[in-house]
Amino acid sequence: MAHATQPLRLRVGAATSQPARLHHPTHRIIRAREDGSRRRRSALVAASAAKGRAAEVVREFYEGVNRRDLAAVAPLIAEGCVYEDLVFPRPMVGRDRVLGFFGDFMGSVSPDLRFVIDDISGEDPSAVGVTWHLEWKGRPFPFSRGCSFYRCQPDPQRQEQIQIVYGRDCVEPATKPGELALVAIRGVTWLLERFPSLADRL
């Protein structure tokens, strides 16, 4: 008995309408590398955007002091800021204390006395070094050269606002001991080497 030959029918469904996805481990590795590259690019973009922001904040700080504008300086100082002016025996701790110090400065010196930035670093997103001097009516003020270091961080409440969390000022001394300073250092070192217990009194 002869069997009827039926034509071969191909069933076209959803499975054949889309190309089969490849799940080979190589493809997973490629995707992981692409994701890693995207993350690195994002990090570089963020770092590039952050670069220089700390220096801008420090510039704004000096500009506010020069204008005697304490309200402009206030948001640049972190709540827990520690500020060391080496002319004073102890650091100033807290925004209110720091602003009080600069408020006293603004109220006690001539408005014609201004900070002039000689050089400022700008590559680090959080640390800034500055060299500066004071000028009175455009003329250099005696014994007014100084250098400062600042560390900046975003405000926890407003990440876009960069604030000064630490500062240190070192000002040119009015008296310059010259080589006598080396003599004094050698003398103190000699005493500490022979009487180490004296170090506890430093």
TrEMBL record:
SnoaL-like domain: residues covered: 58-152
UniProt-listed InterPro entries: NTF2-like_dom_sf, SnoaL-like
Alphabetical list of Pfam families matching this protein: SnoaL_2 (PF12680)
Tree of life domain: Eukaryota
Record region (Disordered): 1-23
PANTHER family: NUCLEAR TRANSPORT FACTOR 2 (NTF2)-LIKE PROTEIN, OS09G0266000 PROTEIN
Name of the protein: SnoaL-like domain-containing protein
Species per Swiss-Prot/TrEMBL record: Lolium multiflorum
